[in-house]
Specification:
Blueprint lengths: L15 E2 L20 E8 L6 H17 L3 E2 L2 E9 L4 H13 L5 E4 L3 H14 L3 E3 L16 E3 L4 H7 L1 H8 L3 E7 L2 H16 L3 E8 L8 H10 L3 E4 L3 H13 L8 E4 L6 H6 L7 E4 L8 H14 L5 H16 L6 H9 L12 E2 L5 E2 L2 E9 L2 E10 L5
Parallel strand pairs: 1-4, 2-4, 2-5, 5-6, 6-7, 8-9, 8-10, 10-11, 11-12
Antiparallel strand pairs: 3-4, 12-15, 13-14, 15-16
Helix pairs in contact: 1-11, 2-3, 4-6, 5-6, 11-12
């Protein structure tokens, strides 16, 4: 893997970009990049629906890496196609399947939704085409339902929750912790990961509530049950608009003054934290990135990203940026699916804004998780890094 290049002063797109949308590709076949001088990459991210902000961050991160590298990956000119993943698997699976079957595309990067990622595994396995997951966190993507053609530069749900479990157990001592999250697969995995490491470190659970996913706007009845249980702390997973609503209502009920609040980093990430503002102050979370990380690579990355986007980068931005990093090395092997996979297997340590990481045997990142605390710095709310967390065993 080549070292990170010097960073540009601005993000000016100079590489080829075809039309966006699910029908962006002609599907007329071909032999991938066609020659050693070019490669075709599809970025499959939400451009519509509830996850569109995540897709925007991922696209910005991937484009930044290309801009830094003179619009090349593995020394080959990049032709990039951006395709809308949509809001869920009903949109994302057909769009992704079309990309898997299109011989003109050499590799695909992106995918926010875990159900979409799981629904695409067979298609990419059959096509022998690499899919680099830059967000979706379902544990089984690089676990029991994995394919040698599906890799991940993001996280697994259980690890994010599990990373903070031991720390919380140490903080609460013989007290109990109440768990809250949305009632769907990801919510269950985040809470299960936390519970496993928390109880493994001697922690005790006061109770668990799973709220209707995507339907709950009034969390007060659930929060009252939390208050009545008198736990020593609360652990929660929410993301997007639900995270904003939950955090604001937690604060409005005065629970911040009574019960320390822990969660996964998605609770206070990106636009969610901006919308939460002061109501998120003091929340502790676990995640593998913060724009406040103090390392040289991240300092340069944040400066370049803010120059081009006028907002700080998020975890979603870094995950896509690092997808560019791993493809840069892998494509030196060639543009066929098996060549790229061979290159991914040979990927060494990545010099990432999140800190150095490398692929595990499960084809996902072996990375550091951080304990973050919401604080106001220079007039803006941020996830200040408090410490490194012990990574849970796979």
């Amino acid at each position: 893997m080549r070292a990170t290049r010097s960073l540009p002063l601005a993000l000016t797109m100079t590489f080829a970009l075809t039309a966006c949308g699910g029908s962006a590709l002609s599907g007329d076949g071909g032999d991938g990049g066609g020659d050693d001088g070019s490669v075709k990459i599809a970025l499959l991210v939400p451009q519509s629906g509830v996850y569109a902000p995540l897709g925007k961050d991922m696209e910005a991160g991937f484009r930044l890496f290309l801009e830094e590298n003179e619009d090349q990956l593995g020394g080959k000119d990049v032709e990039l196609t951006v395709v809308d993943e949509g809001a869920g698997p009903e949109d994302g699976v057909p769009a992704g399947t079309k990309l898997a079957q299109d011989d003109s595309v050499d590799a695909v990067v992106g995918v926010v939704n875990s159900a979409t990622a799981l629904g695409l595994t067979d298609a990419f396995d059959e096509a022998k085409k690499p899919l680099i997951i830059a967000n979706a966190g379902a544990d089984s993507i690089t676990g029991e339902e994995s394919s040698k053609y599906v890799w991940r530069t993001s996280f697994s749900n259980g690890e994010v929750g599990g990373a903070i479990g031991k720390h919380v157990a140490e903080e609460v001592g013989d007290g109990k912790v109440y768990l809250v999250g949305p009632d769907y697969a990801a919510g269950e995995e985040f809470l299960a990961g936390f519970k496993k490491s928390f109880e493994g470190a001697g922690g005790q659970v006061a109770g668990t509530q799973m709220t209707p996913f995507g339907k709950t706007t009034n969390f007060q009845p659930y929060l009252q049950k939390v208050r009545n249980a008198k736990p020593k702390a609360v652990f929660a997973f929410y993301a997007g608009s639900e995270a904003v609503t939950f955090v604001k209502q937690y604060d409005k009920l005065g629970l911040h003054d009574e019960i320390p609040f822990y969660g996964t980093g998605f609770l206070t990430e990106g636009g969610a934290l901006k919308a939460q503002g002061k109501s998120a102050e003091g929340i502790f979370t676990s995640l593998h990135y913060s724009s406040a990380l103090d390392n040289e690579t991240n300092t340069d990355f944040v400066a370049a990203y803010e120059e081009g986007n006028e907002v700080p980068p998020t975890t979603y931005s870094v995950q896509a940026y690092d997808a560019g990093q791993v493809l840069d090395g892998a494509l030196e092997e060639g543009t066929s699916g098996d060549d790229i996979v061979a290159g991914l297997k040979d990927t060494g340590e990545i010099d990432s804004p999140r800190g150095p990481w490398s692929f595990s045997d499960n084809q996902g990142p072996d990375q550091t998780y951080y304990l973050r605390k919401v604080e106001q710095q220079d007039g803006a709310w941020t996830n200040a890094v408090e410490d490194e967390l012990t990574q849970p065993s796979s």
